[in-house]
Amino acid sequence: MAEIGHRYRISAGILHFGGVRFPLYGPVRFTMNAAEGLRTAKVLGLRTVVPMHFEDWAHFCEPATRINEAFALAGESSMLHPAAARPSRSTSNPGWPAPLRFLPAAC
Fold first, then answer.
1. Which of 106, 89, 101 is nearest to 21 (CA)?
2. CA 58, CA 103: separation in Å to the nearest integer?
3. Residue 73 has what pLDDT?
4. Which residues, other chains included, contact 71 with Cβ-Cβ below 8 Å and sequence gap of 6+?
5. Cα separations (Å) of 59 from 46, 62, 103?
6. What is the pLDDT along the chain (107 residues), one digit of tens a residue?
7. What is the CA 45 to chain-centroid distance, rounded?
8. How confident is the model at residue 59, as a pLDDT?
9. Where do runs of H (alpha helix) occur along 25-87?
10. Quick check: 46 and 81 in contact, CB under 8 A?
11. Other C-beta atoms within 10 Å of 51: how many?
């Protein structure tokens, strides 16, 4: 990934967060956790990160608060798109269905 960051000038990235893992697949992670997303953003030289897929399903292990905290601790809060600070639709709107679960998560 560092090669991509050196070769191309990428200003924004839509990154999959949530830290999803399933016991069935062992240590394999299906989406990045907050630390991995931060590291990816830095390696690629992103100025803007738009987090996605981090709260609406029950198997997501890291909510927006963890993403915000990780970027803040690294002094990179300005890198996050403002949508990252907002709760997801399913947690902020009682009219939306509860988070869905199709496999047990391994948070």
1. 106
2. 9
3. 95
4. 34, 38, 49, 77, 79, 80, 84
5. 27, 9, 7
6. 888 888 888 999 999 888 888 888 888 888 899 999 999 999 999 999 998 877 766 777 788 888 999 999 999 999 998 765 555 554 444 444 454 455 556 66
7. 17
8. 73
9. 34-44, 64-73
10. no
11. 27
Return the residue matching tokens 């927006």: 64
Structure tokens at 6: 């050196």
Residue labelled with tokens 């890198």 = 79
- Structure tokens of 11? 């200003």
Return the amino acid letter for 80.
L
Q: What is the DSSP letter of 49?
A: E
Residue 8 burial by Cβ neighbours in a 10 Å radius (0-12, 13-18, 19+)? exposed
pLDDT of res. 12: 93
Q: Is 103 left (phi over 0), alpha (psi -120 to 50) or beta?
A: beta
| 48's tokens | 């803007």
For the chain, the first-to-last Cα distance in angstroms comes to 26
